[in-house]
Design a protein that fits this description.
about 210 residues, 9 helices, two-stranded antiparallel ribbon, homodimer, mainly alpha
Chain lengths: ~210, ~210
């Protein structure tokens, strides 16, 4: 297809597509004449991935470049490629030190070992979890996160990873991982707060509002 | 206790305590002499609440004022007071309209009815969930959120609400709700991403790194 059709099918303006080509985020089309290049499915797929990283993942262009490099490096195993995207989505954590942090990191190690999860030593969510645990312990809240881990594991194994096509095109796998990680995360967070309101109403014996028909 | 002791016990500087007093976030102490006021447990509790709203909830001072007003209004039922704090924590959603939004809102209503959850019509997480569903449907992802809802409900009823003392001091209940909502939410999010990495490694038969002893 020509660039005008690529733009129409992807919903991305020609100016933006040209920008992605210049930045090396999108691979060049096949030059079929001096002033004409042909684009195909692989370009559409790549544009979908860029949009997912940009609009849903909200990653800066420099991070998107790194993810695209991993996708384009066919020698990089799929698991490492997914990890590159995944780690780019992780919020930055100001790692601390001192006894509290050491204890929290040990608890994270211990929890992961007990669950039998296979997670890289330098996975950023480890530090995120340690940071949250430091706060939870400082505040004297219940620091046993096993039930949360079990619930997370169940959702991930029974639903989320099924939406990631691990043996298809590399862009498609990364796109699905990013969308699933961000969107199901948001959905769960909203549902959890709705569940809190409902459970608070039940415990405090609040009667349902009269107009709540439906 | 005197203000210096209140400062020492709460870890909050005298200048900041004076600022909270001026802003009406903290109630005045008992004036025992022209230049001396006495503070008690209720002041310590209130300072803990302000810190939770500020540092963990990351609320702006205007929102904190609204929450404190709800705590101080003894005529406001506990459920509504908790709702005031809870809704203040909700991210702002740019509500949309059109067919896609109508369909997503209907799906949220339907899901909540099916689960038998008692949630106010104007609860902000409803719109958050609708917004996420619009995106999930546009992208052709699995839009059945029932498993997420059930997992959220289980964690909230079996663990989270137990940490909120519903029949104690009003500040303490709001403080526990805010801390639990934010911190367990962060913990779950990090655990979910760790579970994704682990499940990806399992499906792609990645061997555990040799140095991963422990």
């Amino acid at each position: 297809m020509r660039m005008s059709q690529l733009s129409a099918e992807s919903g991305i303006s020609i100016a933006t597509i040209k920008y992605y080509l210049r930045e090396g985020l999108l691979h060049q089309g096949e030059q079929v004449a001096a002033t004409r290049a042909e684009y195909d499915e692989s370009h559409l797929r790549r544009l979908r991935l860029i949009r997912a990283l940009l609009e849903v993942g909200r990653l800066p262009i420099t991070s998107i470049k790194k993810v695209i490099e991993a996708v384009d490096d066919e020698n990089m195993p799929v698991h490492d490629m997914l990890g590159t995207a995944h780690y780019a989505l992780s919020p930055a954590v100001e790692a601390g030190d001192g006894e509290e942090w050491t204890a929290a990191r040990e608890q994270v190690d211990h929890l992961l070992a007990e669950l039998g999860w296979q997670v890289s030593r330098n996975a950023p969510p480890r530090e995120e979890l340690a940071q949250t645990l430091v706060k939870i312990r400082q505040l004297g809240l219940n620091a046993d996160l096993t039930p949360y881990a079990r619930a997370a594991h169940q959702l991930v194994t029974e639903i989320e990873l099924d939406t990631v096509p691990l043996d298809g095109p590399r862009d498609a796998a990364v796109e699905a991982l990013v969308l699933g990680t961000v969107l199901y995360g948001k959905a769960f967070d909203a549902l959890r707060r709705l569940a809190q309101e409902s459970e608070s109403a039940r415990r405090l014996k609040v009667s349902p509002p009269a107009q709540e028909g439906a």
